[in-house]
Amino acid sequence: MARVTSTWTEPSNTATALLLLGRGSDPASERGVDCPGDLPAPSDPGLVARATAAKAALGDRVFVLGHHYQRDEVIQFADVTGDSFKLAQQAAARPDAEFIVFCGVHFMAESADILTTPEQRVILPDLAAGCSMADMAVLGQVETAWEHFQDLGITGPDRGGKPQNENRRNDIVPVTYMNSSADIKGFVGRNEGVVCTSSNAKRALDWSFEHGSKVFFLPDQHLGRNTAVLEMGFDLDDCVLYDPHKPKGGLTDEQLRDARMILWRGHCSVHGRFTLDSVNDVRERVPGVNVLVHPECKHEVVQAADYVGSTEYIIRALDAAPAGSAWAVGTELNLVRRMALAHPDKQIMFLDKTVCYCSTMNRIDLPHLVWTLEELVAGRVPNVITVDDETAKYARVALNQMLALP
What we know:
The chain is about 40% helix and about 15% strand. With about 400 residues, the chain is of the alpha/beta class. β10 (about 240), α11 (about 255-260) and β11 (about 260-265) form a beta-alpha-beta unit. α4 runs parallel beside α5 (about 105-115).
């Protein structure tokens, strides 16, 4: 498991409040949070100049990655912008950069550490920048589920199953979305599965069903269900939902044996907010509007949309849209606002009336970035993300299997 060394402080209400603000320590937390206490004030008018100066002083030693959902104040300093996998690839393509500053969330920085050289150090400006979806799949819970699958005889011998279950009709293949921890990617790699992104999920599932009869899909139920039903022709009844907080996942043995897709009960807190009412409301308010959503949205929302695709797909669709067209977009608000500003000749709006930033992605703000860069200039390396060798080895297996998909 990826950990960051930190010093324990006695918990208190004040300490908890500071931790929520990105300050203080809690090494027992999922990410071993150890956050800085002395940040530049957000109101500091010199922050842009300070970031510019620090980045210039570091030169080619630093490479700054910015996820599409980041604030504009941070994106302006990114050397490359993109989705999580593209950014991890870009990090790996810069072996001469001593420091990779990842302006995203924790699982993204882990993936960058897995794919970069041992000499490079991956830095997350605020260690409290996690991902609620990734945190919904904890390794111990996943291993418990897998042991149950082994007891039922639905895992093949290559994945820890009983020798008599060599018939592939009784073989389940683990697949994890890129939005998962290094621990989960390592679990999938150890059990000969594959990582997928929102843009290649169908290819990953096609590969998986060539190697088994079932898929155990982690951690986003919606991406798994939408891909299976809308792109592969499965029925909703082919999918069952495994709840790690219920005995045996809340499912009967028969349900698990009959299912083709066993979906983990996880979701994106941002994309999960969009509803069918959101779609119906915008169609009433804006005649002729095109509804464009991410496949992490609920099944009924994706069914009601005109277009569905990954973050990169959404960007390409809006770039290519004709002038004067109207678009209601179901994804993170920073990206929607940025696209609206980039295309003033098009009517681009947020799908829901409720403002919905990704709260953890937004933890990476300009004060944190300035603090990180100035620490590096001063010869101090903060917030290094390190995945242990064993986990990284097997996570790399699952990532490489994704790269090898036809």
